[in-house]
Amino acid sequence: MDMDKIKNKIKKLLNLAENDGAFDGEVDNALRFARRLMLRHNVTQADLEEAKDAHEIAADAEAVDYGRVAAFTLGANLSQWESTLAHSICQLVGTVQFYRESGKFARRTPHGTVDFSKGEPSTATRLQFYGPEEDARDATDLLNEWSHIIVSMARMKYGGAFKGSGREYAEAFTYALYQKVEKIRQEEKTAIANEQKLLAAGETTRCTALMVRNAGALMLAKKNKGTDWLAKECGIKLSKSSRSSGSTIYDGDARAAGRADGNKADFSHARKKKLEG
Question: Of 129, 67, 53, 51, which is closest to residue 92 (Cα–Cα)?
Answer without folding.
Answer: 129
